[in-house]
Amino acid sequence: MPAELNFFDTYALIALTEEIVPRATFFRDRYFPTGDGDIFAADKVLTEYRKGDRRMAAFVAPRVGDIPMDRQGYSIREYQPAYIANSRLLTLDDLQKRGFGEAIYANSTPAQRAAQLQLRDLTDLDARITRREEWMAVQTMINNACTMQEYIDDKTKGEENKVQFYDTTSEHTYTVSNKWDASQGDFFGDVKAMCRLLSKRGLHAADLVLGTDAADAILEIDKVQKLLDKNSGIIIGQIDPQLSQYDGVVFMGILNFGGFRLNLICVDETYEDEAGREQKYFPATSAMVTAPGCGHMMYGQVTQIDYGTTVFTTHTGKRIPKFGINQDKDIRKLRLAARPLAAPKTYCPYIYAASVVGG
Fold first, then answer.
1. Which long-range contacts (CB under 8 A, 24 or more apart) does 318-326 make?
2. Which terminus of the chain faces fewer neighbouring Cβ atoms within 10 Å, N or C?
3. Exposed (0-12), middle (13-18) or buried (19+): which is 355, by Cβ within 10 Å?
């Protein structure tokens, strides 16, 4: 007789979690994908990077033969990813309630309802972690750092941990002399200058990420409208806004900035902060030049005591579930944990400009 699958076993829960269709998020998926070498069997993860090399080969006198060149150095940093753990309780009252979308007179048993709630809870907990990863990706690109506020419970703050990349807070930023929607604004000149900051490092510029106010203002700039006119005689690009696969993200078109052909992408993704207020991931008045795959999302291991055992077990992966039970109170608990870290792959592969439009 085949053995019955135990859905409370950690490895069964991990397999179930891997079957959940992940929610697509713009910054994490486009700029911080996770590769085969980004999941570590350790508490800390390693990031390594080197600056772009633009040195030329030397002219050598014939009798010399050759001139040895120094190998370009690179830096390796060790970081400990923050720990994320959401949980949800399952009580007798939950099993007696009609589930969302369930017929009023459905004949589902408590066991069937528990299984349905377990899958629904895993999906919801996974989505919450995904939103935090999206936030981490954006913060890393804006600040070249990410500050993570730990909590002891849902209201009490603990330690504040900050990860700063490359020990620099300015080489990834650009300041416009005049706002783009002002009379003296230089939209094309500023974006071209941002692209050149990347090209000088040997990095590619492919995307111009825009906040909602910045995107709206660009469409109102006279120079943009004139250059997009087919009768102008200058091929500058095309604006044809289209919804993308990501919620709150619009692909606006392609513009040419002195040879740099950039995808214009308007981002209006939002989340709910700890106080219950709606916040934008990317500031409405900001802009950024970067390229897909400029970073990666890495994961550290999670060590826990699995259900039914008394020893610590270490698991590696993007999501690590855990089942627990309080027999005295007849309560089950399902937890989903992760230890992500969003990190750039090279030295400052993004140029961020704050407040490019507005007063």
1. 318/34, 318/39, 319/14, 319/17, 319/18, 319/126, 319/129, 320/10, 320/14, 321/10, 321/13, 321/14, 321/16, 321/17, 321/122, 322/10, 322/13, 323/8, 323/9, 323/10, 323/13
2. N
3. middle
With contact defined as beta carbons under 8 Å apart, do 34 and 297 qualify? yes
pTM comes to 0.83
Report the C-alpha gap between 31 and 291 in whole angstroms: 7
Give the whole-angstrom CA distance, residue 216 versus residue 266. 9
pLDDT at residue 48, as a whole number: 65
| pLDDT at residue 76 tops 90 | no
pLDDT digits (tens, 9 = 90+) for 236-285: 778 788 878 888 999 999 999 999 999 999 999 999 988 889 999 999 99
Q: Which amino acid is at 143?
A: N
Residue pointed to by tokens 């007798």? 92
Dihedral sign from CA coordinates of 157, 159, 164, 169: positive
The count of residues in the chain is 359
Mean pLDDT of 310-320: 91
Q: What count of other Cβ atoms lies within 10 Å of the Cβ of residue 39?
A: 16
Other C-beta atoms lying within 10 Å of the C-beta of residue 309: 10
Tell me the sheet residues that pair with 304: 313
